[in-house]
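User: I want to check something. If I give you two sequences, will you return the structure for each one separately, not as a complex?

Assistant: Yes, each is folded on its own. Here is the first sequence with its structure:
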Amino acid sequence: MKEAGYEAYLVGGCVRDLLLGYEPKDFDVATNASPEQVHKLFKRSQLIGRRFKLVHVRFGREVIEVATFRAPPEAKQHVDTQGRIMQDNVYGTLEQDAWRRDFTINALYYNIKDFSIIDYTGGMADLNAGLIRLIGDVETRYREDPVRMLRACRFLAKLGLKLDKQTEQGIFDWAHLIRDIPPARLFDETLKLYLSGQAGMTHDLLCHYGLFEHLYPQTAALLHEEQDGYPRTMLMKALENTDIRIAADKPVTPAFLFAAILWEPVRQRTLLLMTNGMPEIPAMQRASSEIIGEQIQRVAIPKRYSLVTRDIWTLQPRLLKRQGKRAYRTLLHPKFRAGYDFLALRAESGEPLNEPVDWWTKFQAETATQQQVMVDSLGKESSVKKPRRRRRRRPAAKKTEQN
């Protein structure tokens, strides 16, 4: 880009992380070239974004995000009645772009020409002081994009810094604005929050600042009712396991994460339906549909994940019913492993489920012959058979004497 005569700087998280001694996961570039000009320069590039157009440039497996300098808040822009920016394709200068960013520590530019750091907002001073500070008027910036409150929590957990007092107070004051964000966008932000490697700490911060209740209201309403490991102990154990898997570079499925976050509302709804006379498995299926239907009004859960989440839940009662051919049918279920892992998580959280967890652990590794022995040793499931009603005989017709 420099060779083509454009300005270009590394900016944002990659510069911040390098200065803090972390290895950046990705690199962002800011430039005075328009998205169309950038796209024309690189064959392996793609224009993306609606509110603000970006260009993704591919180098091998790496994707570098290139954004055109944006104008400051004073420039013409489209906002809704809440002050939230709806359209943001207003281009500006390097300095204008700096003042348009969210936090001072994310407004540092690395100039590859002379290897210098360009800082217009005091980001270096805040970085040295260990502060996360919002750029500009706190209320205005949070109203423009309430997701900045979620980003603040993510940076707190990830970087080990602290919030500037005004930046922090603003989250307490304006947490409810999160409800104005489209559910689909909150799904993306939720994944960033809980798959950052510090899920447990991030969750505590969301609860502390009153944000979690606007993301997952059904679960938030039950968090204070801790009993027998539910819901907080179980949820925190799930988040701890998530962090361990990420640290070990193992895959984490969002479906399992959502299953853990929403398990307590589903469990209680299932019990309520059973109290009203519905059998356990149909009750679990109905509760799963209802809870997910209510949740996606706040945080969207794409079907590719919600269907797996439902399977994890509905496998729970099936994993406890192992007699006869049931164990084999359950073992062949496509999502058996996820359901089994969830059962193990429940046992880790204190629920008396160690026996079935150990049984399934052994059952998976045994030969077909030994599996049959294990099933036979369970005995037949006790059931109360309804007595057959005897067919009442029709009374014989009385013979009448003919006179």
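And separately, the second sequence with its own structure:
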Amino acid sequence: MPDFKYLAKAMTGKQVSGTLTAASEKDALAGLAAKSLFPISVMLTEQSKQQASTGSRRVSAKYLTVFYNQLADLLKSGVPLLRSLQLLEDQTSHATLKFVIQDVREQVADGTRLNDSMRRHPKTFNFLTVSMVKAGEEGGFLEDVLARIAAFNDQQEELKGKVTGAMVYPLFLMSVGLTIVTIMMVWFVPKFAAIFGRMQDQGTLPWATTTLLAVSDVIQAYGLLILFAVVGAGAGTIVYFRSIEGARNLDKWKLKIPGLGGILQNLAVARFCRMLGTLLKNGVPILQSLRIAKDASGNVILAEAIGNAADNVSSGQSLAVPLRSSGQFSRDLIEMIAVGEEANNLENVLIGVADNLEKRTSRRIDMVVRLLEPVLLLVMAVVVTFVIAALLLPVLNLSTTA
């Protein structure tokens, strides 16, 4: 928890100062009240400010969604941006978010644009959020973008909740099953190895049992080495995917994952279409709109295709032609864009496409979530059945031979 330095008055009227640890400024004030102290000022210590500014703690999506919604509502009500940020800074109880809002407000007060101020805090405001805020600032519809970001965060949290809820029970069963299988492979199966030794020498041991014994031997001999190798490979993979080339390859592979790739592509295309349609509807020129909206997709591969399309549009081509040649967009979408361009109604067509894609993707996500539980249970059942069968088959063979 962060530390707060305070200046307060005691019951005697004497001024006292010090530090205390609390989850939020509100809790710090409550702590002072419990000591019969009347606060004059309460603020984060320099060390806590530094920790907050370096992003040592992430701000949960729940707090960010509330922040985006409230900022959008204040701006829609005509409250100036600086005043809105000040109000939100004063009322938030999250210490890290409070510092971030304070820093953003101070940067904006010094003349920095909101998106550039938010870009200073990548662990709080991700790339997509900053790109969308930039589009809203340049297009003059910042409050709409903020509301859209909040809605998108809600969708992401709802999806995460669906997946988590569907996977809790099967993952619990799988963890129990994996623990049992590991214990069997390390302690139980080796005891059978001595019993089945003669059958193995004679070559009469079933292949399933031979495989099980071989796996058990490998785990016993190299278990720790395998564990360290897996952890090291995982850490190396994370570092690689954080690089520019790795992030590009990750986005490329995401689109090729069977089943999931189509969902991720539809979500990215829907974000792009909605952002481009909103920009055009607010009078932003097509070239500028494309260069802003390409980052809203959240996928490097799609952003590159859209950037190339913008270059072709600048040379006089229609938007549909370069998007078609990129191979990243469905034929139906290309046809809709072509019709929208011909009818001079592209912005409304794009927003309609985004609505349809989001509805279609939501249905597919629900279907995938419903399939997760039985698939995981089936995998666990297959593994456990294989182990049991591998141990019982030699016994059955012996009884049959006898």
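Because they were folded independently, the notes below concern the second chain alone. The chain has a mean pLDDT of 83. The chain has 17 helices and three strands.
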